[in-house]
Design a protein that fits this description.
With 409 residues, the chain is mostly helical. It is built from 17 helices and ten strands. 46% of the residues lie in helices and 8% in strands.
Length: 409
């Protein structure tokens, strides 16, 4: 590993193979973390990127204003990423202050503690209804039938998405998050479908507003008497709806499914939580640390030459923060490869840190805790329905999620 970076190209440091991160994530990251704090890899778009592996660096860089989110700060030829139309691309994950501050301030109002607390009973009802549907079968793919259903119902109810418009959403999001090499056009087709979906939904909400978050955001956008600095552009409005629905679905699906697998792998803790579900509140943070929903934070671009872990990285190159590696860093966490909610380990980064901390984190926590409590209460004999070694993770270096989770009870 060289200590000074050249611009992306053949004369830069040799790229580290990322295939082991898909095949066996945590051992692969442990080797990189031990070898050094920063490594040159092929990024999620196939172009060279810098991977940061140690907790203190990752946490600090999440909040470092010298690292921009806006793709316009990427050096020419350095980054490609998703090719999204402007109406979907003007979202919080592509913004820096002051635009990020303005738009986030509007979204945060939707996820106040009071509003999220009011959603506990609807989430419990949805969880029970989903379990009612699968209970007579005695077995199910819990990812498809439960973990993948509850978050989309909750977030669609919050936004006011009609029932008839929800059926294709999971296929679209999967095509974007985990592209299928055998279907190279699927992601582009999903983007087109999503754009038509959101523009049509916003048009209908404008004509017939409801008591939902999207109608509230449309009123903010269309209020001609409002403060110009506090309003949304049309592209920002559409992009917000896109991000809230996509992020509210993807992260929580993996939080729930990964947590179920972790508990099945640790039957003593599972039994403790079945006997005292109130322990799930404390267990959430350890579940999120141990097997969180994202391996990587969203890419960032240095606004100036920056030194990370003794490595000098030029402005505009792509920096990836390895959340999964940070969570298993023995320099910060005691027994990092062990799962133990009783240790009270704090400081996980599963939902971000700093100004880009997930605005929907309180809702994700409530959904996960309720989903797990309902599942453990209803199915005391819950167990894997396939040998553990047959489970497969999605082929992604960014998202940490299972392809399926067959269980029986």
């Amino acid at each position: 590993m060289q200590n000074t970076a050249n611009a992306a190209g053949a004369d830069g440091p040799e790229l580290v193979d990322t295939a082991p991160m898909i095949e066996d994530l945590h051992p692969a990251l442990a080797k990189l973390r031990e070898a050094g704090p920063v490594h040159r890899i092929a990024g999620t778009d196939g172009r060279p990127a810098w991977l940061v592996t140690r907790y203190e660096d990752v946490r600090r860089l999440f909040a470092d204003p010298r690292l921009a989110m806006d793709k316009r700060h990427a050096a020419p030829g350095n980054y490609s990423g998703f090719s999204l139309p402007p109406a979907l691309d003007r979202n919080l994950l592509n913004m820096d202050p002051p635009d990020h501050t303005r738009v986030r301030r509007l979204v945060v109002k939707a996820f106040t503690p009071g509003r999220v607390e009011k959603m506990r009973e609807p989430v419990r009802r949805i969880a029970d209804e989903l379990l009612d549907a699968i209970e007579p079968e005695g077995r199910a793919d819990l990812l498809a039938a439960y973990a993948g259903q509850l978050p989309i119902i909750v977030i669609c109810d919050l936004l006011g998405v009609p029932q008839r418009d929800r059926r294709d959403f999971r296929a679209w999001s999967d095509a974007l998050i985990t592209p299928d090499p055998a279907r190279p056009r699927a992601a582009k087709e999903a983007v087109g479908s999503m754009l038509r979906f959101y523009t049509g939904l916003i048009a209908r909400k404008r004509a017939e507003p409801g008591d939902d978050l999207l109608s509230d955001l449309i009123r903010v956008r269309d209020d001609e008497t409002g403060d110009g600095d506090g309003r949304l552009t049309e592209d920002e409005l559409t992009s917000l709806a896109f991000l809230i629905l996509l992020a509210g679905y993807e992260n929580t699906v993996h939080l729930i499914a990964n947590s179920v697998l972790t508990l099945l792998d640790h039957p003593k803790t599972l039994q403790e939580l079945r006997e005292d579900p109130s322990g799930l509140t404390a267990a959430f943070d350890e579940l999120a640390r141990y097997e969180g929903p994202a391996s990587l934070g969203i890419r960032r671009f240095p606004l100036e030459e920056i030194e990370i872990g003794g490595v000098t990285i030029p402005a505009g190159e792509t920096v990836l923060l390895s959340v999964a590696s940070a969570h298993r860093d023995p320099a910060h966490f005691e027994d990092p490869d062990g799962f133990n909610p009783h240790l009270g380990r704090s400081g996980h980064l599963a939902l971000g840190h700093g100004i880009h901390y997930c605005v929907g984190a309180p809702l994700a926590r409530i959904e996960t805790e309720i989903a797990l409590a309902a599942l453990l209460r209803r199915f005391p004999g819950l167990r894997l329905d396939v040998p553990r070694e047959r489970l497969r993770w999605r082929p992604s270096t960014r998202a940490r999620g299972l392809i399926s989770l067959p269980v029986a009870w």
